[in-house]
Every structure is written in C-alpha cells, then in structure tokens.
Amino acid sequence: MKKSIIELPKSLEKFRGEIEKTIKPYIKIKLQEQKTMPWESKLGGNPYLEIGIEYPKTSKGEYLRLLAQVNFEETPHLDPFPSKGILQFFILANDVYGLDFDDPCIQDTFRVIYIPDVVKNQENLIKDFSFLGELEDDWYMPFSEEGKMNFSLEYMPVSWSDYRFDNMYNNISLTEEEIDDYIEKLDADGCKIGAYPTFTQGDPREDENIRTFDTLLLQLDCEKECGLMFGDSGVGNFFINEEDLKKLDFTKILYNWDCC
Fold it and tell me: Residue 148 sits in which domain range?
C-alpha cells in the first residue's frame, strides 16, 4: 500500500509504518433519503421478496422489519464478500431493536438472509406489505426515513475501539495526546461494510467466546440523512466469521448495538 493512502496528524507520523500495517479496505456507505426499487441497496423500505417465499418472523410469529439491504452488484468488490446477490438484515421492531442482550447470536428477533440470485422483475416479487401493519411506535426502528445506499471503496487503520488495537500496536507506546489524536483523526465512524468497527461503549468481542466473529458485515452509525440512530447517539454492528462469509453461510451472526 502507498504511504499516501491515509493522512496522519503530525504527532502520529513517526508511527506511520506500524499504522499502515493495520490498514484494511472497506466499503463506505452514503445514505440518500428516497424511495427505492425492491432490488436496490437500502436502509428500511420494503425488502426484495419473491412470491412464494415466506416473510421472516420470530419463533412467536412476530414479523421482523427490514433494517437494511445490500445488493453486492452495486458495491465495489471487496474480498471475501460476494460479488453478487442481496444480503438482508431484519430486526424485530421493539424498544431494543430486536437485540437479545443475553445471547446476541440467536437469530430469532433478528435475521440475516442472503439471496444469491436476483431477478429485477417486479412481477415476480411481493409488492403489498400491508400485512406487516403499522409500527407500534415510530422509534422502534432506528431510522425515520427510507434511504438508498451509495458506495465507495475506502481504506482505514485499526480503530481505537476495536479489541485488537493494543495487540496490533504492542511494539509502540502512545502518549495521551497521541491517543487523542488517533481517536479524533483516525476514527471508524460512519456506515460501512468490512474493515474495523466503532462502538459507543466497547467491543463485545472482548469476550473470548465470540472472537470467532472476526469480520464486520455491516455497521450503521448515526446519520442525519434518514434520521439514522440507534438509541442515544448509538451504532449498530453485525459480525460474521470470515470462513462462514466465504462459504456464504449466514446462519451464525453476532448482532450488537450500543449507545451513550
């Protein structure tokens, strides 16, 4: 990678070599408030759902709601993510956005679904989602408006809040000022696919039992566009094991969100 790939504050320039070793590419997501087609990448709105396919529900029969949908034909290619197909993220619309804090890996009140083959023909798709009914409360979903996703390929070093930060920089010692500069200038904020996450409270993968979830599948951070926010200035993340991602096996997912 070229050394000019990222800009560093002067205080961190002496650590450029170590910092650049941690750089990873990611897909940056920019939201644009608008109605979308069924097969487009989006926040909220109606999902791509072929006629005859059952809509996702909880074990109690409660309908989940579409949080986000990514069509990989619209994104820059990023290994080991697929180059085609749609990945959908559903959550239960409740006051915790479908997260089971006791076991955030159980796909009951949330679901991640991969559709490998996409046909852009509305005649083959369900168009009437009135069966979902009205939300009990508007704030039960972490956004206020539907939005289309636009993408670009970017690069970033390991984020301060990633549990691997200290291990990756175990050969250098940062002062408080340098740490402040790192947090301010090399943050991991924003909506994205891949690379390193950010958190409001802390990385749940500090727990060794869930460190197998090593790949950031999707991050949704606070955005004025579409009124996106988890709780009070919070961020939502979905993680997967890299080998499962390569196999397009989305049955084991870690879902997390935290806020101030």
Answer: 3-258
- Alpha helices by DSSP H, the chain: 16-21, 165-168, 176-185, 242-246
Q: Which two structure tokens, joined as six digits, stand for 61? A: 């029969």
* Residue 215 · residue 242 · CB < 8 Å: yes
DSSP assigned state of 64: P
- 52-83: b (≥16 Cβ within 10 Å) or e: eeeebebeeeeebbbbbbbbbeebbebeebbe
User: What's the token pair of residue 138?
Assistant: 């508007």
Quick one: residue 42, left, alpha or beta (phi over 0 = left, psi -120 to 50 = alpha)? beta
pTM for the structure as a whole: 0.95
The CATH number assigned to the domain holding 82 equals 2.30.320.10
Report helix, strand or coil for 71.
strand
The count of structural domains within the chain is: 1
pLDDT tens per residue across all 260 residues of the chain:
444 478 999 999 999 999 999 999 999 999 999 999 999 999 999 999 999 999 999 999 999 999 999 999 999 999 999 999 999 999 999 999 999 988 989 999 999 999 999 999 999 999 999 999 998 888 899 999 999 999 999 999 999 999 999 999 999 999 999 999 999 999 889 999 999 999 999 999 999 999 999 999 999 999 999 999 999 999 999 999 999 999 999 999 999 999 98
